[in-house]
Amino acid sequence: MNASLDEAGGPAALPQSSPEAAAFELCETTSALVLADEAGTIAALELAARAGGADAALFVWVIPGEDQCWYRSIAALDPEWSASALRQLHGGASNWLAHAARSSEPVLVRQARCEEQECLDGPGADLRPPRAIWLIPAPAPPGCDVLGLLMIAGKDEQRLDATGRMMPIYRALALGLTDWFHRRGRDELVRRCHLTDRDLDLLRRESLGEGSKRIASALNTEAKTIDCRFHRLNVRLGVANRRDAVRLCRRYGLI
Questions:
Q1: Tens digits of per-residue pLDDT, 239-254?
Q2: What is the arrangement of strands in the sheet containing 147-154, beginning at the earlier edge strand?
Q3: What CATH code is assigned to 2-180?
Q4: In the chain, count of helices (H) and strands (E)?
Q5: For a designed S-S bond to 193, which of 91, 120, 130, 236 qualifies (C-beta 3.0 to 4.6 A apart)?
Q6: Which pTM does this prediction carry?
Q7: CATH number corresponding to 194-251
């Protein structure tokens, strides 16, 4: 299936009353994401889908790269649909991420079967009913180039009116999930690469345009010592040079 933003729906006709109990519970769950583990985050997605009249939810956190993008995701309720949606994103078969990159506005899209997706999904995939999907982008933190996209999908588009009625809560959820992935990625980077305050101070000075000689003077050491420290740090971070090291640590808010 391939989504077309040209088929984006306008403002839905919203019922006069809103599901206050579901909205309140979803607000509470979104607030709890600050301390949530993976199981708690999946539970939040499941609640978000059910409260919004949907039967699947997927959140994708994307790190753009020069040659390829890096994806992390979390899904609830329908792993088959989520896997199919991820294949579309990886294969460039949809323009959902392009929308998230250029706009923070939620949009309702309708999937339509295409030959490319039939090949991806395999025989019998066309028997599954198409989905309507709310795409809810999450703006990246300042100075960060990551993309966050919450997808709330359902077979019954009319039932997704509930998502439209509670859109401010879903936008808050998308931001909360982006922050959750961001903090988790930062903590993993610090732990995996054994980053110290001395390392981050070095990168902070580099980000301010200080060269090895100036950094060495400030730290009362030699320029070749600073070059060696940068080399070892680049190896630990898995990057080619100090510029990429600064970019990586800035992405996670470490400097």
A1: 889 988 988 888 777 8
A2: 2-3, 107-112, 132-138, 147-154, 56-63, 70-76
A3: 3.30.450.80
A4: 11, 6
A5: 236
A6: 0.70
A7: 1.10.10.10
